[in-house]
Amino acid sequence: MSRNSVGVDVGGDDAAKPEDKSMGSGFCGAILTFVSILLIIATFPLSIWICLKIVQEYERAVIFRLGRILGGAKGPGIFWIIPCVDTFRKVDMRTISFSIPPQEVLTKDSVTIMVDGVVYYRVFNPTVSITKVEDANRATQMIAQTTLRNMLGTRNLTEILTDREKMADQMEDILYEASQHWGIKVERVELKDVKLPQSLQRAMAAEAEATREARAKVITAEGEMNASRALKEAALVMSESPAALQLRYLQTLSEIASEKNSTVVFPIPVDLMATFLKK
C-alpha cells in the first residue's frame, strides 16, 4: 500500500509542474506584453516605425509571439508587431529553382554515368515550411539528389537515354509526395545532361557507324536491283520495236559527240550485217 501511495503522490507532483510552468509563462508573458505596450505609447510616434512592417506581394510573414505562432501568415501589405514580444520571418512564395549537382550513378546494367538536373518548387504553406523543417531549401535539395540516384539505379542505360521525360515526371511525383509535408510543392523536374564514360562513347559511336554503313549498303543494293529491273523492262520493250532500238542508238551517238570533240568509230549497223549474211 505504501508503494501505491508513493506512486500517487509522485504522479500528482509531476502533473502539477507543467501547469505551474504554463501559468508562470503566461504571467511573465502578460507582464512583458504590458511593458512593451507602455513603451510603445511612451515613445509614440517614433515607435510606430518599429512596429510597422511591410511585406511584398510575393512574400508572407509568419509572426511568433513569445515563441508561439500568432495566427496565420500575414501579407501582402502592412502588419504590426509588438517589439520585444513578437518576431517574424519572411517567406518567399515565388517559384525557386536549384541545380542538382552531377551525381555518379550505377545503372541496372552496371554502367557508371554522371547525371545532373534542375528542380523547380514553391512554398504553398509558409507556416508549415517554417515550423516543420529547419531549412526547406536545403532539405529539398538533399532529397532531390537522393531520389535521382535511387531512381536511376533501377533503370538500364537505354531507358535513361530514351525515356528522360518519363523519368523526370516520375521523379517529380516522388519529390512532391516527400516534400508536401513541409509546405513545399515541386512543380517541375528536368534531367539536364547524362555523361557517359569515354570508352562507352567510342563503342556506341563505332556501333552507330557500323549500323549506318550496313544501312547504306542495303540501300545501294536495293537501288541496283531496281535499276536492273528497269533495264530489263526497257530491253524487252526495245526488242519488240527495232526502230526504237535504232533511235536509242543514234541518241547515244549524239550524246557522245556533244560531250567531247573526238573521233568516233561507228560500228556497222546490225541490220546491214544481216543483209550481207542473207546474200
From TrEMBL:
Belongs to the band 7/mec-2 family. Signal peptide: none annotated. The keyword Transmembrane helix applies. One of its GO terms (cellular component) is plasma membrane. The gene is zgc:112408. It holds the Pfam family Band_7. Residues 1-20 are annotated as: Disordered. Keywords: Membrane, Transmembrane, Transmembrane helix. Coiled coil: none annotated. Gene3D superfamilies: 6.10.250.2090, Band 7 domain. InterPro entries: Band-7_stomatin-like, Band_7, Band_7/SPFH_dom_sf, Stomatin_HflK_fam. It comes from Denticeps clupeoides (denticle herring). SMART domains: PHB. Residues 50-208 form the Band domain. The chain crosses the membrane at residues 27-50. This is Zgc:112408. The keyword Transmembrane applies. It is found in: Membrane.
